[in-house]
Automatic annotation (TrEMBL):
Pfam families with a match to the protein in the record: YbbR
Superkingdom of source: Bacteria
Residues spanning the membrane: 12-31
Protein's name in the database: YbbR-like domain-containing protein
Keywords from the UniProt entry: Membrane, Transmembrane, Transmembrane helix
Length: 278
């Protein structure tokens, strides 16, 4: 090998030195143009693999971390790019301490975290059914229009969480804004759960379903009248059977029109319901 180098007449030592100097210069320039800097972020904590029969009664929501990254990476880095999580697969009822784990993007290093573990309070899972109410950001539709009572589907949800957190639930509601609307408002809206102070309990209490369909009828503002609903029947029941009672989901209806026309209406009639051989 030495004879080969000698025949070629190449000074390999000088060539290697030149290469190392060039590499050092490139690294120096790169670092100067794009130095590594540090930043602090508030990162939400994800709690994973909690057994189905348990619920969190107390927990930390976030952890502050300090990370280092090249300037061009740090300039676009967001809290959502950093994952902090605790594996609760081995958790049991009572106080439980879980280590925090972190996942970071490429070229980002964790320098420190305000906490490397979380202390949790865990209790048995309980459920409770609650009605859903409507909160209006504004209940004023466009001028000349009137909003009628909202209808929800479903109008109740099942809440799951620890018993102590369920006891704190003050209201379950959706938020509706019908500002300046001149037609019916329809939407599929998220369910909110709050305590008596208005604090959200959604981190501890889970509504099922989490979304509710809402309809707020918006009609022209004119005279109205509430009348009973009368069911129109067609046909006759099977032999040996009689109609003992008729139950209507909405026993009354609100009708609108000129006052002279309203004065002539005593009932709102349904479309014919066929009960032949029922």
């Amino acid at each position: 090998m030495r004879d080969f180098f000698a025949v070629k007449g190449i000074n390999w030592g000088s060539l290697l030195l030149a290469f190392l100097l060039s590499l050092s210069l490139w690294v120096y320039v790169t670092v100067q143009d794009n130095p590594v800097i540090e930043g602090r972020f508030e990162v939400p904590i994800d709690y994973m693999n909690l057994p189905d029969n348990l619920a969190l009664s107390d927990k930390a929501d976030t952890v502050r971390v300090r990370v280092a990254a090249p300037t061009n990476v740090m300039n676009t880095l967001a809290s959502s790019d950093i994952n902090a999580y605790a594996d609760l697969s081995a958790a049991g009822e009572g106080q439980y301490t879980a280590p925090l784990r972190f996942q970071l993007p490429d070229n980002v290093e964790l320098v420190s975290a305000d906490s490397t573990e979380v202390v949790l309070v865990i209790n048995q899972l309980a459920t409770r059914q609650k009605p859903v109410t409507v909160r209006y950001v504004s209940s004023e539709p466009a001028e000349g229009y009137l909003a009628l009572e909202a209808s929800l589907a479903p109008n109740q949800v099942v809440l799951s969480g620890s018993e102590d957190r369920l006891n704190q639930v003050e209201e379950v509601f959706i938020t509706v804004d019908i500002t300046d609307m001149s037609s019916n408002f329809r939407a599929n809206l998220p369910v909110n759960v709050v305590d008596a102070s208005g604090n959200s309990l959604l981190g501890f209490v889970t509504p099922q379903p989490a979304l509710v369909d809402v309809l707020v009828p918006v009609v022209t503002e004119q005279p109205s009248k509430v009348v009973p609903v009368s069911v129109t029947l067609s046909g006759a029941p099977a032999e040996g059977y009689v109609i003992s009672r008729i139950v209507v989901d909405a026993p009354v209806a609100t009708i609108f029109g000129a006052q002279s026309a309203l004065d002539t209406v005593d009932y709102a009639y349904t479309s014919a319901v066929n009960i032949a051989d029922a």
